[in-house]
Every structure is written in structure tokens, then in C-alpha cells.
Amino acid sequence: MALEAIRYREGQLSILDQLLLPSQTIYIPILNTQHGYEVIKSMQVRGAPAIAIVGCLSLAVELKSLTFPSIDALVDFCRTKLEYLVSSRPTAVNIRKAADHLLAFLQSFQLGQPEGTAQAVESVKLKLIEEIEKMLENDVADNVAIGDHGAADILARTGKTRITVLTHCNTGSLATAGYGTALGVVRSLQKQNQLEHVYFNETRPYCQGSRLTAYEIVTDKLPGTLICDSASGWLMQSGKVDCVITGADRVVANGDTANKIGTYMLAVLAYHHNIPFYIAAPVTTCDLTISSGKDIVIEERDPREVTNLQGQELSPKGTVCWNPAFDITPAHLITGGIITERGVFKPSQLKAKLTA
Ligand code: MRU
């Protein structure tokens, strides 16, 4: 059975607890938005698309048993809950865009009938739940398109028939509704029998690579090798890497991209070694309201995520530590392009292509 980070069946939501992987495979039920907020904040679920989907589905399950006296009351309730969910983690834009979309969807019913009969209010609520449920299907379809566009572009650009990829963090089924973004490109290459190898970074401090990507690579029997983050430069110098592909948490109008800490370092190294560097991300990760990367808020997390590893202290008490969770890769270093479900674009073309 396919690896599922998010299970949603007959109105019930549960998530695979990513803090426990790979040693334990435990699904935890999510009953409401407060619970949704907590699992996002604690990173029991993580990855920009998965954060948005779990947040919105937690609203769907909470709504199920509630009734509202008017459409206005339903809209007010959803607005408060969505703002709360958006405040869980600041860097990934997907949950903000999903919240804005759902509110606009609701407001289209509010126009002209702010009160509504009990039946009309219930029917709007059910339509909203259906709209949220579509996110699961749409995300998988978008990821397959990203994977296929990315694979075609890389094959054309390198002129090779078998590709070795270096990737970072976890961008696969665990970070999305399924298939993945950067790891989706790897899956598409494998599907076409054109994946030579995938190297993946351990991705300190949360170890999305050594715990989560490794889990997906082993489960899917992909030809892959884990390396320390600090081995990336040496690997590139060896001439083994055909392209670097990472995901994104926010791609802004000029193409600057926020992604997991360490991505910028990889982009600089790829530039130095003349290796194409790609970002793979759905359009829901693109934020054209921000003009450049300097305006992206970078989440800083608890230093204990660095000084401790699974309850074990690595550093002496009193060690001062800085733990930014993301960094910004300037557009000029994204030499391969930005792979979306609509095609592969140069960073400088992104805004025009997405608004065309
Ligand atoms: O802190 P995380 O694990 O949520 O960060 C995840 C990443 O940076 C991913 O690369 C990004 O969200 C894309 S996931 C398809």
C-alpha cells in the first residue's frame, strides 16, 4: 500500500506521527483545529503541502458535528479557526493560500444571504467540507505533473538517459498528500527507468533526510544513498551529480525561494560546480504578493532541536545555539528552473507565467 502521511476516510482524519518515524509507525487521530495546530507546530506533520492539507482537514472534521445559526456565523467561525491554523508555522505559504481560498469560497455564498435558512447554512458547510476534501486529490495530481515535467526537463537539459539527483529534506509522500515534489521528480525518473541514483542529505537538525526520505527510499526500493549535509560539496566535486532538486516553502515573485535550512548552501555549491539547481513546488507554494526573498519570514525553532537528539543531550549545558529552520536561495542560483504542475519556468519568468 502507498505510504500515507495523511489518512482521511469517511470524515475521519489521522496523521502518521513523523516524530516517531522510522522506529514506530503510529497514526494519531485529529479531532479538531486545536489538535491540527498542535501537530503542525510540533512537526508531527510537516512539509508545506501537508501542513496546509492537515490544517484544513482538521477544520473539516471539527465542522462536521457543528451547526450554525447563520452563514455569517459560519464564516466568522471558519475565519477565526483558519487564522489560528495559519499562525502555527510562518514560512510555508500553502496554508495561508488555502485559508484565503476557503474564505473567499465561503464569502461567495454569504453575498446576498448573510442569514440563510438552517438548511441553506448546513448546505454551505457541506460544500466547504467538500472543497477541503478536494485538496487531497488535487495535491497528488499536481505532484505527478510536477514529477513528469521535471523529469522531462532534466533529461532534455542534461542530454543523459539516466540521471543522478541530489536532494535535501523530505519532499515525498510524507510532506504532501502523496508522490511528492522534488522526490516526485525522482519517482517519475524511476517510473521511466531513467533514475540512476538519488543521494539525499540527512538534513540536520530534524533529520528529515535520514529519518523520512530514507523511509520512503527504502519502502519504495529506490536506488538511494544517504549522505551527511557536509558531504554534499565533495559529492558534487566527484562529478557524480547531474542535478540538485529541492522543494520549497515559499517561492516569491522574483523567484527567490525559502526552503529547508541548507538549501542555499547546496545552491551555491551547485553553481560553483556548474550543476543545474531546480526547485520543485506546486503553484500553491508560489507567493506573488511578496516581491523578493528578503521579506519572507524565516521560522526559528527551539535550540534544543540542535543540542539534543531524541532526548539525548549532544552539547554541554549553556551552549548558545541558533536554529533557523529555513533559508532563502536567491533566484539567480536556481539555474535549472522552478518545476511546477504547469511546467518548468526560469525564476525570472515565474510571475508572468503564473499570471498569464
Ligand atoms: O520544516 P519542514 O520539515 O516542514 O520543512 C519542509 C521543507 O522545507 C520542504 O522542502 C518543503 O516544505 C517542501 S515539501 C514538499
Automatic annotation (TrEMBL):
Instruction: Tell me if Lyase is a UniProt keyword of this record.
Output: no
The compartments listed are: Cytoplasm; Nucleus
Q: Which UniProt keywords apply?
A: Amino-acid biosynthesis, Cytoplasm, Isomerase, Methionine biosynthesis, Nucleus
Q: Which reaction does it catalyse?
A: 5-(methylsulfanyl)-alpha-D-ribose 1-phosphate = 5-(methylsulfanyl)-D-ribulose 1-phosphate
Q: Where is this site: Transition state stabilizer?
A: 169
| Biological or metabolic pathway of the protein | Amino-acid biosynthesis; L-methionine biosynthesis via salvage pathway; L-methionine from S-methyl-5-thio-alpha-D-ribose 1-phosphate: step 1/6
Membership in a protein family: Belongs to the eIF-2B alpha/beta/delta subunits family. MtnA subfamily.
Q: What is this protein called?
A: Methylthioribose-1-phosphate isomerase
Q: Which species is this record about?
A: Hypsibius exemplaris
Q: What is the lineage of its organism?
A: Eukaryota, Metazoa, Ecdysozoa, Tardigrada, Eutardigrada
